[in-house]
């Protein structure tokens, strides 16, 4: 009887408090879930390092070279995590003392995930490493490559002031400061729009969204004013803009209806896109699915719509091909159209004669052009891939081993791998032409008369490769690229001494010997576009497209596994669980 | 063999990633733990209400009376949670749309608990209730009791403006706006000090603490400047100040040593207390333990130290009995000395002729003196306990049933319970005198000649009770008092109609009939003072004192159980677990 009444009470508790049952279900499976979400080799610290450090300590330690790293975004963090060569003394300089897992920023705007959960303090990373790393919270304001110095400004306001500006010496400088929003000189954007680049942008948006609903719930407004306040405009139909619109729609349909029932009908979400489609970097199937879903959800997608200006009350747009612009009142605007260089990078580009560029140009080894000891990676840099046509004579000379002045297919075949490594566009060109064999490519240039034993002179060789360079593409400004670049550079630094002695890169075509390292090669792992309602579009390598709830689960597991630490992983996963059980937090803090 | 290698890898994973093993241990026990932490009946929503609402709906529903509640602190939240009478239409007005679990504010300052975890949005509470409740995010700026109106100012900044000020009508007004910090007119406090009353105060302190350590780690400072920046001063040795000092010390000794190893030796914590002891509202055993522990921890406790002024760089103090004041440079000051009335309350007190008071005076039923339909509770109010001596003639008359002009012990005994309910100081006085029987008290007044059958005249009766009123004490301004007052008032409102018909309170001494309700009686449940290092001092009813690690566990379980919702309970507990596994977050966001 006692047992019975205990179970009776227990089961009643479940009925009375539905959250309770959810908590128990979730906490029961969470132990296993956390592990399943995680890739086993994501952690770079641990015993390996310590053993390594011990081994080095017993050798004679040469004077450590000073590496200065600017910025701890994806590129900088990835470099720090992968670096394990104790022969360097690393000084990190960044005005922000934490790394942000940027792909989850849109999730922060409406409370699906907490700001703190997607942030990892740089000192947490540093204190686990056996490499000598220190950190200064400051902003680099000038790079002086001649004297191998950078100048930093102290940005922390306390009641005790030190010197305002201080200098830091370097042997190697790694520039990974990222980019800033690009307003395309549209008037009023800085004054009236929200952005979504940093954690505090996301926090401000969240506060603003909640405050808009609170304001609209007040008795001192007309219905017209309520509609204005609850008109949310997103400018830019890229992944960020689309995800924010989807998050906001989910928030309205899942939480606002319960929390702000009186004002839910005044909400309107508008998405403005200047080109013909949203998500235009994705496959067409994804684009049209997304446009269809947003249509059904009541999100007003306006394609071909250019923003001409934003005042504090209205946003002016112009439809493509129409010279008149129309103005619409709004409550909040998110501007997410693209990126431009930061002032430091603009200034540095001017200094080194790259003044007209949109990002710092580097070679394929991520070195800033013209400097052997300055690297640039992530959104602040682009790789200036060397053109085949510029080096065509040298390639011909290197390939023509018998110095006959003509090239046989066999001779070219022998150096083809080296050429493809140094000039990846050759391989892309062959793929795009669906040419399997280099002989076919050369034959085509030679014309119908070509035979197996043909020989090409320099002019014919040029003709064969003349369109190769059209295949060169800039890498997208994504977290994935920056992450891979950081890891690549760390590996180079880890093996610096070894590769000085035994270079492992491709042979130099314009000189003797080989390059120290293999050039950086980007490996595209796929891309997600969350569309709301627990549906995500995924475009994976090999033209594989998946849309729907299953991709959402893929999204959850990939984003959980890609977290930089066990700490943020646990926090992000528990935020998802919390939202599933309790809904979003509407406190506006 | 395969199995073996799986387990081998698994156990290696545990050794390599100590956090992983902690996560698994914690998630395994968390399911049970959460339930154990929680008292079963803490949730007020659920089936009971719905059944009640159904029953009422089938009767004829009278026009709902409008209740306006100002503030959602402990008192307001407790009122809302306990109210379940659907005959009221409640309008909540507060400039802050969430409740804060204030006892955990010191935990937020150094990242033991997240700000969001101790906050419950008022709309989450409202949407679960079956009572008609709405909320406006606005600040009440004026109370107009004659016209039964309050005036509110819209405090939300958006790009669309409505009317600045709007009025709200009420039938009943409940004032629970809390208090603000009291600077005792010390110059420079508002400009240079931190406070710890609100969630954003705690967030600011947290940011400031982290930024101080970042600043001190920069290369552009002298050691002298580093010492200044890392000198943390706490003014006020009450529970808040003491707990903050303890949290800060824990943060330094547990996390700073790892994260900021270069600056850890520059840290200094000073605690200034104007009286002779810290925690002087606690038992002496606790006070001396706390002072001893702080001494061992290296926290500089300065007793009898008055702050005379604070500039942006230095804090000036004066030792008791010494006329000279000394100045010390500081990096950060927390001011936590006491509370004073908010401007709204000051203004209202002037209006109703209570201008000289420090808080709104109410009667024992929490009604503002002179108003039948305005209630005040929590930190903005004090109960003006009616004195026995003021009513002594009426009490005598009521007791003297045979109108003989004298009172027998038996006669007084008959109304003693009613007297004690109306004038609780009588009971306290008897306890303090260790008098068990009222006869003894009366005998004492009568002198040695007293007998069992004695009779007292009015003068002798006065003499017997003359010192009773010295036992009157104001209730402390704590969360516990406010919480009980809110619950009490909700119960009154829940039974309003019933008690109008059948009053349940004590008989009126100065008039006929009975009071509608029992007067409010505070039940002290004990008090905690966390002292850092997982040690807490607990003072429980019945003079029971406990200090140490076991009290810390009591603290954890009490604070987890007292959370206002399952959501915050889960969040707070998971924050504690997170800190245990991963340490504090040093990102400063």
TrEMBL record, chains A, B:
This is NADH:ubiquinone reductase (non-electrogenic). It is found in: Mitochondrion inner membrane; Peroxisome. One of its GO terms (cellular component) is peroxisome. The lineage of its organism: Eukaryota, Viridiplantae, Streptophyta, Embryophyta, Tracheophyta. Residues 387-422 form the EF-hand domain. PANTHER family: EXTERNAL NADH-UBIQUINONE OXIDOREDUCTASE 1, MITOCHONDRIAL-RELATED, NADH DEHYDROGENASE. It is an enzyme of class 1 (oxidoreductase). The keyword Metal-binding applies. Belongs to the NADH dehydrogenase family. It is a peripheral membrane protein. One of its GO terms (molecular function) is calcium ion binding. Its cofactor is FAD. The keyword Transferase does not apply. Keywords: Calcium, FAD, Flavoprotein, Membrane, Metal-binding, Mitochondrion, Mitochondrion inner membrane, NAD, NADP, Oxidoreductase, Peroxisome, Transit peptide. Its EC number is 1.6.5.9. It comes from the Eukaryota. It catalyses: a quinone + NADH + H(+) = a quinol + NAD(+); a ubiquinone + NADH + H(+) = a ubiquinol + NAD(+).
């Amino acid at each position: 009887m006692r047992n019975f009444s205990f179970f009776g009470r227990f089961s009643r508790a479940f009925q009375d408090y539905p959250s309770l049952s959810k908590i128990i279900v979730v906490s029961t499976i969470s132990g296993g879930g956390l592990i399943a979400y995680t890739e086993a080799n994501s952690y770079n610290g641990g015993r390996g390092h310590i053993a390594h450090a011990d081994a080095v300590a017993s050798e004679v330690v040469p004077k450590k070279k000073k590496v200065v790293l600017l910025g701890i975004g994806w590129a900088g963090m990835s470099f720090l995590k992968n670096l394990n060569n104790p022969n360097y003394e690393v000084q990190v300089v960044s005005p922000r003392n934490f790394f942000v897992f940027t792909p989850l920023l849109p999730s922060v705007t409406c409370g699906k995930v907490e700001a703190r959960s997607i942030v990892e303090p740089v000192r947490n990373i540093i204190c686990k490493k056996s490499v000598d790393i220190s950190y200064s919270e400051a902003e680099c304001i000038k790079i002086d490559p001649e004297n191998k110095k950078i100048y930093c400004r102290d940005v922390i306001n306390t009641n005790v002031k030190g010197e305002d500006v201080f200098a830091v010496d370097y042997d190697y400088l790694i520039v990974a400061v990222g980019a800033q929003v690009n307003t395309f000189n549209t008037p009023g954007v800085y004054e009236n729009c929200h952005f979504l680049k940093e954690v505090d942008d996301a926090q401000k948006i969240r506060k603003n969204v909640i405050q808009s609903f609170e304001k609209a719930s007040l008795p001192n407004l007309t219905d017209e004013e309520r509609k204005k306040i609850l008109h949310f405009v997103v400018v830019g139909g890229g992944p960020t803009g689309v995800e924010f619109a989807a998050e906001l729609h989910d928030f309205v349909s899942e939480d606002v209806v319960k929390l702000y029932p009186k004002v839910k009908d005044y909400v309107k979400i508008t998405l403005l896109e200047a080109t013909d489609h949203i998500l235009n970097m994705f496959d067409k199937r994804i684009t049209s699915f997304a446009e269809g879903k947003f249509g059904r959800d009541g999100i007003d997608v306006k394609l071909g719509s250019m923003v001409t200006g934003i005042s504090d009350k209205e946003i002016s747009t112009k439809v493509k091909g129409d010279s008149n612009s129309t103005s619409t009142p709004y409550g909040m605007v998110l501007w997410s159209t693209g990126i431009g260089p930061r002032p430091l990078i603009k200034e540095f580009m001017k200094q080194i004669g790259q003044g007209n560029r949109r990002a710092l140009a580097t070679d394929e080894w991520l070195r800033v052009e013209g400097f052997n000891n300055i690297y640039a990676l992530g959104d602040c840099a682009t790789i200036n891939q060397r053109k085949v046509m510029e080096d065509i004579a040298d390639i011909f000379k290197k390939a023509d081993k018998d110095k006959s002045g003509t090239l046989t297919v066999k001779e070219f075949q022998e150096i083809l791998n080296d050429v493809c490594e140094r000039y990846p566009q050759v391989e892309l060109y062959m793929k795009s032409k669906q040419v399997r064999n280099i002989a076919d490519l050369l034959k085509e240039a030679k014309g119908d008369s070509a035979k197996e034993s043909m020989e090409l002179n320099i002019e014919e060789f040029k003709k064969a490769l003349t369109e190769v360079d059209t295949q060169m593409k800039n890498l997208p400004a994504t977290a994935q690229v920056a992450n891979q670049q950081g890891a690549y550079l760390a590996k180079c630094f880890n093996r610096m001494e070894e590769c000085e002695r035994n270079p492992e890169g491709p042979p130099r075509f314009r000189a003797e010997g080989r390059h120290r390292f293999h050039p950086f090669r980007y490996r595209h792992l796929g891309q997600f576009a969350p569309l709301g309602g627990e549906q995500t579009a995924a475009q994976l390598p090999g033209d594989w497209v998946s849309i729907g709830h299953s991709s959402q689960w893929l999204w959850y597991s990939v984003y959980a596994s890609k977290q930089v630490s066990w700490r943020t992983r646990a926090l992000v996963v528990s935020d998802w669980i919390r939202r599933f059980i309790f809904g979003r937090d509407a406190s506006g803090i």
